[in-house]
Amino acid sequence: MTEVRPTAGASASLWERDDEVADVARAVDGLCADRSSSGGLLVFRGEAGLGKTTLLAETRRIAEARGCTVWSARGGETLRSVPFNVVRQLLQPALVSMLPEEAREYLGDWYDIAGPALGIADPGDRQADPQGVCDGLVAAVRRLARRDWPLVLLIDDAHWADQETLHWLAGLAERLDEMSVLVVVTRRPGEVSGTSARHLDTVAAAADGPVATLSALTPDATAGLTRATLGPHADAAFCREVWAVTAGNPYETVELLAKVQDSELEPVEARAGDLRELNRSARGGGLVARLEELGIDATRFAWAAAILGTDISTDLVAKLATLGPDDARRCAELLRTARILTTPDPATGRSADGDLEFVHPLIATAVYNSIPDALCTAMHGIAARIVTDEGRGAAAAARHLLEVHPDDDEELVGQLREAAREHLAVGAPDAARRCLERALEEPPRPESHPHVLYELAEATFLTAPARTIGHLRTALGMPGLGGDKRVDAVFRLSQALLHNDQLEEAVRTVEAEAARLRPGPARMRLQAVHFMWEGIHAGEATSPDRSRRLADLAATCTGRDNSERALLMLRGFDALMHGENAEEVAELCDRALVNGRLAPGLGWTDTEWGIELLLMLANAYAFTDRLDRAETLYNEALRAYETAGWSGGHLALAHAYVGLGHRRRGRLKEAESSLRESLRLAERVGRGLPLYWSATCNLVDTLLARGHVQEAWEVAERYGFAPPYPSTIVLPDPRSVRGRLLLAVGRTKDGINELEAAEKAAAARGHHNPVLVPWAADLARALSTADPARAARLAVDVRRQAERFGTDTAIGEALRCAAALETGQRAVRLAAQAVTYLEASPCQYEHAAARIEFGIAARSVSDLERGLDLAVSCGADGLAERARAVLKAGVGPA
């Protein structure tokens, strides 16, 4: 009979793992080949006891033999509610070994963002953005990998990792080509669902090759392992029975053979019948019975260790088990001898404050499940107090508090609220949600109940706006939430309704609350919010006299507080959308600033007002040709969000509007780069949201300006840039941009229909600014042959609206449209006027287009050459190609 042996020097549990070990060796060799080598990812999947942990130990041995730095961590079944538990195990030891200044230097700008999650820095005083923290942790690995190359990260039992770690692991898996680090992950199949399962699927999809599934030992391998352990005299029948009772599970096989050795059982057929009883004593109920045989003290000690789950120190276990020091040390030794507990292996490199750990996760699970329910609950309550007394904080105690039965304990409610605040501060809103939901079960006293609901809404705001709506409505229906906190809650509710695509309900909510309040700052704030939501609504539900009411209210504002400043910004944006005089728009916006800057409390990361208001202000400057002021605001937003670690929707919008600023300026390559980054970030937040439309619409518009028509069409198709359109306003108008796209790809009839739909939507809203909603000029050009009379009327109307608005860009673009519909000297004169206006405009792409069109109409080589130079500097490849073609063909005198 052939016996399949493990690789030389490897653990017995590595029998029949040659292929997996070879994969590991290849991956390590690839990592070590060159400092510039890209990272790698291996995922091994297998049921409990099939040797995943042993395979990681072999990976460590191989990697360290090749000079690698190896860090490892393990998920725990009872620790999944502890945020960042596994990633802290993995990275914290390397960082705490540094001086604080050195750690700050390595992490750079990410120190204050990722440091609190890793437990090496104090959290800030505001809620951290989970995506920003995730990105910071990915950056930490990238920077540490450069210092500690070649770096290998081992993560065992990933199915039991906390959700925050899995979020980071999924992000890391997608960025491994940017760093030289090998990640090896083991997990069981199944075990998780929901968000955690999706993260693990992302990790599996990023792996180098298919996920390797570990199988049980064959009868031949089991026989070989039996004889290697017990001696070559073990007969075939005995070996077959070992395989039969363990089903080839390597862990159970090794444990059973250890029991055979301990009992001095002869490995012969006559004693094979004893194997089943021995196997039962090593697992499940047999293990529990064996534990009870060690005595009540040892059992209590093991239960206390299972309750703690991590950082198991003899002293801490003794406190929880109410044992004296000598008895505790005796129990620890008994449990080590019985192969239930063991001393942590320093070679694993895992962070551990304790001096004990369970021999195997299967044993830890069996011991924990053996604790009587009532006693388990009581021990968790005691553990929470002990952890708190040890100075580990409310967040560390929360894991135990979550397991305590509700008992109308206001002190426990306070502890859970404090834990939730700590979780939010490090970027773990899901952990905060669990704490606050548990606090509601207690339940809180009537006076604190609405405040717990309000805090719960803060925890769910980013991830579950529908749930947030319910929490806030309930809180607002209770007594006890008054003053500024109530106004904040109404504003938060309206924001959640907006994010849940219930904008009309958001408008009604703030309108109704404002009507309840007496005149004053609180009422004015809600009135401003009401006008803000109405102002960004793209539907037809706004009352017809809204602009008049807003103008009347803003006329009373001097900008003395932020409510008045907000109303001035809103009035300026409303005037912009309606195409009122640009000088007056800019003057309204200027009055909303303090010494030319945003007022305190109105910054990009301040939460009292939200990003929408400030984008209205910045866009009002951008489309009134005050691009310097607009770009200052856009770049301030980008810096503020990057510094604060806000890597979600806020940062996506910041990149989108930085891109819009580049597009308006005529820096088309830079615009495309910013907009693609915005779209990448928006993809992580979710399709269909207003920020997603902003990124897509502006990218399509920029690609059309560059002359990359096919690429623009592919982007539109890939990202769903087509009806139905969002309920919020997107700049520039998406219908107008899509109409232009359809014309560019030759779908003239569809393009005309889309532009006519843009015309109707703009008329319903009274949006007559030809720069923001540029349907008319494109429609006039499209109809120039089929319906020249209507095209001429459209061109006249565009020019009238442009002159009313009064910017050089608007008037110059209107003149370009008029020139395109004319011939002969009239076309030349109009094109020359367009050049004059657009030369004074900050929008260099439009100037380049006008210069080339004038050069063609006037047959002017110098204007064509100048237009070509402008087009090249803008990155307008289509314009440049057109100018080169005309120059190559030659132009005669005008």
Automatic annotation (TrEMBL):
Segments passing through the bilayer: none
Gene3D superfamilies in the cross-refs: Tetratricopeptide repeat domain (1.25.40.10)
Residues covered by the Orc1-like AAA ATPase domain: 16-184
A Pfam family this chain is assigned to: AAA_16
SMART domains cross-referenced by the UniProt entry: TPR
Highest taxon in the source lineage: Bacteria
Keyword RNA-binding part of the UniProt annotation: no
Keyword Nucleotide-binding: yes
UniProt keyword terms in alphabetical order: ATP-binding, Nucleotide-binding
InterPro entries cross-referenced by the UniProt entry: AAA_16, P-loop_NTPase, TPR-like_helical_dom_sf, TPR_rpt
The protein's name: AAA family ATPase
Species this chain originates from: Streptomyces purpurascens
